[in-house]
């Protein structure tokens, strides 16, 4: 009765079962996997947000396939003011209800059934479900950890086939927190150009650059190779930049056809508003052809509602307060983590450059899932095992850095107690 594309394993895994059993038993759970920013104690401008949703203009129906011009202009201004993309035409922006929907548009635009997309490993597990629903095959390429996370270009060359249609890049990656750096951009564009591929770039965490590990080599990441910082090129990220900015947006990439995805879920910490977009850049002829087809796709669904589109300028403005709060939270939790790590030797934090997550390298005495289950049952602490993010081996835990500070510190203490028994 049902399609093969939805033939997923829907039974709960052992880790999820352990968490639900602990909660059902009334245990006080310290959740170090929190991803919902609306529930971590941030201070929102509620009055301005709610007032923006009450615009009288929302009573008029004005269907625009790419989204209301006023909303797209606000998005373009965000890229100009925050990321130096000065010539972004709002007509190259398509609004969507989520980055997931944006992915579906782009995957359908680029791929026939059975075509392939290259995706980073480790990375966010959502890609697998999106690809299944669009009948696309994902082919992983590894990010390697050597004095910091880096793209493995020889593996890209090995992975590409005649059916490859694009390369997915997460900038910064979730969960590794690694940006694509200036010295990687040239080879990445060359690879795509030589093989006739598009770039699909997820930038939802772009604004959360930490700049904590860029050059100090602090002992909190261990000794030897782990303690040495990544050497950075002085080459500008894009033409027109005066200095290296690892978190410059790909929305200014003109060398190859590029689709840049982002939205208010992370930029303004408003996931419930369901506002996202796709920015198309690259050679003029390819951009024009892509936009003509994307507009038809968007016009077929017309998924965004009018009240939230009229509210976009105000909702984007909220980022200025929210991002300060989140960055302060992330940096405080990172400092707390490093302070506690300094007093033990069992595990190490890997270098993180941006985003909301940290990766711990831990002793491999059991599988990551077994360790995570043990932490739930013995310490009432929830962390994500590395295999959730497709790490190639055991020995990794992923932690959320937006957890409330007191809860985060207590949770880390219990994790390290378990690991240092």
Automatic annotation (TrEMBL):
Residue intervals of the Aminotransferase class I/classII large domain: 63-393
The keyword Cytoplasm is annotated on this UniProt entry: no
Reported cofactor(s): pyridoxal 5'-phosphate
Keywords assigned: Aminotransferase, Pyridoxal phosphate, Transferase
Keyword Transferase appears in the UniProt entry: yes
EC number: 2.6.1.2
Molecular function via GO: L-alanine:2-oxoglutarate aminotransferase activity; pyridoxal phosphate binding
Similarity section: Belongs to the class-I pyridoxal-phosphate-dependent aminotransferase family.
PANTHER family: GLUTAMATE-PYRUVATE AMINOTRANSFERASE ALAA
Protein name: alanine transaminase
Species for this entry: Candidatus Sulfotelmatobacter kueseliae
């Amino acid at each position: 009765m049902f399609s093969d594309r939805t033939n997923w394993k829907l039974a709960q895994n052992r880790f999820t079962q352990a968490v639900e059993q602990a909660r059902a038993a009334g245990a006080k759970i310290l959740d170090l996997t929190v991803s919902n920013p609306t529930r971590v104690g941030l201070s929102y401008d509620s009055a301005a947000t709610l007032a923006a949703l009450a615009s009288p203009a929302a009573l008029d129906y004005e269907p625009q396939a790419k989204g209301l011009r006023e909303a797209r202009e606000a998005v373009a201004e965000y890229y100009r003011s925050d990321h130096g993309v000065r010539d972004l035409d709002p007509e190259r922006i398509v609004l969507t209800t989520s980055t997931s929907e944006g992915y579906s548009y782009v995957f359908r635009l680029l791929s026939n059934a059975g075509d392939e997309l290259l995706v980073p490993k480790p990375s966010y597990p959502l890609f697998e479900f999106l690809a299944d629903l669009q009948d696309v095959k994902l082919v992983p390429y590894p990010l390697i950890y050597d004095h910091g996370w880096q793209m493995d270009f020889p593996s890209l060359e090995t992975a590409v086939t005649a059916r490859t249609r694009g390369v997915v890049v997460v900038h910064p990656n979730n969960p590794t927190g690694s940006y694509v750096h200036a010295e990687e951009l040239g080879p990445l564009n060359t690879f795509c150009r030589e093989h006739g591929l598009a770039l699909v770039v997820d930038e939802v965490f772009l604004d959360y650059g930490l700049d904590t590990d860029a050059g100090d080599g602090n002992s909190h990441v261990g000794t030897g190779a782990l303690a040495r910082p990544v050497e950075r090129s002085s080459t500008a990220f894009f033409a027109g930049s005066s200095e290296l900015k690892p978190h410059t947006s790909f929305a200014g990439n003109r060398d190859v056809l590029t689709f840049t995805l982002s939205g208010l879920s992370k930029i303004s910490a408003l996931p419930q508003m369901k506002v996202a977009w796709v920015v198309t850049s690259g050679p003029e002829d390819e951009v024009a052809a892509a936009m003509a087809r994307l507009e038809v796709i968007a016009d077929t669904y017309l998924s965004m509602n009018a009240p939230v589109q009229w509210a976009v300028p105000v909702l984007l403005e909220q980022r200025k307060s929210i991002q300060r709060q989140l960055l302060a939270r992330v940096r405080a939790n990172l400092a707390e983590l490093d302070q506690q790590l300094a007093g033990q030797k069992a595990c190490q934090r890997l270098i993180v450059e941006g985003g909301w997550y940290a990766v711990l390298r831990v002793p491999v005495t059991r599988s990551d899932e077994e360790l995570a289950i043990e932490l739930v049952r013995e310490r009432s602490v929830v962390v994500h095992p590395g295999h959730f993010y497709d790490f190639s081996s055991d020995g990794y835990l992923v932690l959320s850095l937006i957890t409330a500070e007191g809860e985060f510190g207590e949770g880390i203490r219990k994790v390290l107690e378990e690991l240092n028994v």
